């Protein structure tokens, strides 16, 4: 078309923040979304999660069933979050203004910040540990704190550089990562094929179903949490997809990107059975060490591929996590550009990585913290998805930017900038779900033992958010102005006037916005 322009080179630093991306600059497509989503999850840390069914005592086939169940459910929960980027040309935190209010959107920004820093730390630690472990066995480099510190610093620095350059550079990294990491994982079939036994029976008592179900459900929920953790970030990448792109194609890209992660999940599951058979001490319940066990049972020629998986996959996870936080931080604090905000958040995250690893020993605790964050993010995603459906996918992109421009009013102003319907549904669901979390030795809610030791916080948050939010929308209808020309779906609307959008220097006098002098 006449107004289309060629995408900028990958070496050009991205200038766009969370303001609406102009139509002529949206040159990405659903395949790019697939690459970014799959690349961010096709990593070594996902393989570690794939080992959990074996850690829980399941057989290989039971673990595969739990993985397939959790992955499919998580992908279905996640994929609707991809539609907000093309619809509004901005990230999901800004889009959430439509459902939580102009000020309520800070919930999404806060969840995004916590999720990004946490998963950035996990990716740096897991990849750095794998690199040092491989170097120790191949090059006989001693596993000292200095070696780990150098690995973390180099790795985190590379991630930060990619994020500063922005979307196009990150897309290039993930284009390479999708093919390279998948090939290296598949190569593992040749490395471990001779010692892998699909008839591995697990360690549970086959005659005791009371031991099976908590392990099966717990393993499925751990897998389910991985796709859900991407909920706050999909809009960061899909905002470069043209608004005219059919929504089913965008949703399908996000869905199949997560289903494709059966590759790293399957790698972790299969290799965990090999470790459990050949070196079971590495999977001891009190201190499991999957990475160490993997290096212990891997043939020597596969050390180099493992090192590349750690490097490539970790770069993908780190960049997809950190990029969105810098982007959103610049909207919450507009004095910072996207580049400045990314550098600031990245530096703080790197400091946390070193303090948590060498000073405070937070490696295990931050994994539990990730579980708690995902539990709180899930109901926010439900509110967003149901809000999209009740609005029939109609939004006012200009009104979504009120917070970023430090204005007041508009369709999404609601009650002083807060939509208490969405906020209440999120807060009640998240708080209730946290009380049912059960992470032994780390965090156990007051009702964490009611489900036989199974952590049901995440599924409870999903169900409760859906029920409460729809009930509030029916009992307390939203203003008709937030719905499009076709009106609401499933819920009523109220004839409540929409306040005009006014600048900070304007005051309302006699119902009219009047500009005041500086």
Question: What is the strand tally?
Answer: 6
- Category from helices, strands and their pairing: mainly alpha
How many helices does DSSP assign?
Answer: 21
The percentage of residues in β strands lies in under 5%
Helix content: 55-70%
**Low-pLDDT ranges:** 513-518
* CATH class (first level) name: Mainly Alpha
Write down the domain tally: 1
InterPro entries: Pur-cyt_permease, Pur-cyt_permease_Fcy2/21/22
Subcellular location: Membrane
Keywords: Membrane, Transmembrane, Transmembrane helix, Transport
Protein name: Cytosine permease
What does this protein look like?
This protein is mostly helical and 518 residues long. It has one domain (31-500): Orthogonal Bundle (Hydantoin permease), CATH 1.10.4160.10. It is 61% helix and 3% strand. The strands form three sheets. Strands 1-2 form a two-stranded antiparallel ribbon. A two-stranded parallel sheet has the order 3-4. Strands 5-6 form a two-stranded antiparallel sheet. A hairpin with a 2-residue loop joins strand 5 (506-509) and strand 6. Residues 513-518 have low confidence and may be disordered. Its main location: membrane. It is a multi-pass membrane protein. It is found in: Membrane.
What's the topology here?
Layout: H1 30-41, H2 44-50, H3 52-55, H4 60-78, H5 84-88, H6 92-95, H7 97-100, H8 106-138, H9 145-165, H10 167-192, H11 209-228, H12 234-238, H13 247-259, H14 262-278, H15 290-297, H16 303-332, H17 338-359, H18 363-390, H19 397-400, H20 420-434, E1 438-439, E2 443-444, H21 457-475, E3 478-479, E4 493-494, E5 506-509, E6 512-515
Parallel strand pairs: 3-4
Antiparallel strand pairs: 1-2, 5-6
Helix pairs in contact: 1-10, 1-13, 1-16, 2-14, 4-11, 4-13, 4-14, 8-9, 8-16, 8-17, 8-18, 9-16, 9-17, 10-14, 10-16, 11-18, 14-15, 16-17, 18-20, 18-21, 20-21
């Amino acid at each position: 078309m006449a107004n289309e322009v060629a995408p900028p080179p990958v070496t050009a630093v991205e200038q766009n923040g969370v303001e609406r991306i102009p139509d002529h600059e949206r040159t990405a497509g659903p395949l790019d979304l697939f690459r970014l989503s799959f690349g961010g999850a096709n990593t070594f840390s996902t393989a570690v999660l794939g080992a959990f069914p074996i850690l829980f005592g399941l057989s290989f086939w039971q673990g595969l069933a739990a993985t397939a169940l959790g992955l499919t459910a998580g992908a279905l929960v996640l994929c609707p979050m991809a539609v907000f980027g093309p619809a509004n040309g901005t990230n999901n935190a800004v889009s959430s203004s439509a459902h939580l209010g102009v000020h309520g959107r800070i919930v999404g920004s806060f969840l995004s910040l916590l999720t990004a820093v946490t998963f950035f730390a996990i990716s740096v630690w897991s990849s750095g540990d794998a690199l040092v472990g491989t170097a120790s066995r191949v090059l006989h480099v001693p596993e000292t704190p200095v070696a780990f510190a150098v690995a973390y610093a180099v790795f985190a620095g590379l991630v930060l550089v990619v994020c500063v350059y922005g979307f196009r550079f990150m897309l290039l990294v993930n284009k390479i990562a999708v093919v390279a990491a998948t090939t290296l994982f598949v190569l593992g079939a040749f490395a471990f094929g001779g010692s892998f036994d699909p008839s591995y029976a697990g360690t549970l008592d086959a005659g005791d179903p009371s031991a099976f179900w908590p392990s099966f459900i717990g393993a499925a929920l751990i897998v389910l949490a991985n796709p859900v953790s991407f909920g706050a970030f999909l809009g960061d990448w899909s905002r470069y997809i043209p608004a005219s792109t059919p929504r089913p194609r965008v949703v399908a890209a996000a869905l199949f990107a997560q289903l494709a992660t059966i590759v790293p999940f399957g790698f972790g599951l299969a290799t965990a059975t090999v470790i459990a058979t050949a070196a079971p001490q590495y999977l001891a319940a009190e201190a499991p060490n999957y990475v160490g066990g993997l290096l212990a049972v891997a043939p020597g020629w596969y050390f180099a591929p493992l090192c590349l998986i750690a490097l490539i996959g970790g770069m993908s996870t780190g960049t997809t996590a950190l990029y969105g936080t810098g982007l959103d931080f610049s909207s919450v604090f507009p004095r910072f550009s996207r580049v400045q905000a990314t550098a600031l958040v990245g530096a703080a995250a790197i400091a946390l990585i070193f303090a948590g690893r060498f000073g405070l020993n937070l490696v295990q605790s931050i994994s539990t913290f990730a579980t708690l964050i995902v539990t709180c993010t899930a109901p926010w995603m439900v509110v967003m998805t149901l809000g999209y459906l009740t609005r029939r996918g109609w939004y006012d992109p200009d009104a979504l930017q009120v917070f970023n421009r430090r204005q007041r009013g508009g369709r999404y102003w609601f009650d002083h900038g807060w939509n208490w319907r969405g906020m209440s549904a999120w807060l009640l669901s998240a708080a209730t779900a946290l009380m049912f979390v059960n992470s032994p030795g780390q965090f156990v809610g007051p009702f964490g033992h009611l489900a036989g030791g199974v952590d049901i916080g995440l599924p409870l948050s999903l169900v409760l958010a859906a029920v409460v939010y729809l009930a509030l929308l029916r009992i307390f209808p939203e203003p008709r102005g937030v719905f499009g020309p076709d009106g609401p779906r499933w819920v009523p609307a109220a004839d409540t006037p929409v306040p005009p959008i006014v600048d900070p220097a304007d005051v309302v006098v006699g119902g009219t916005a009047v500009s005041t002098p500086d």
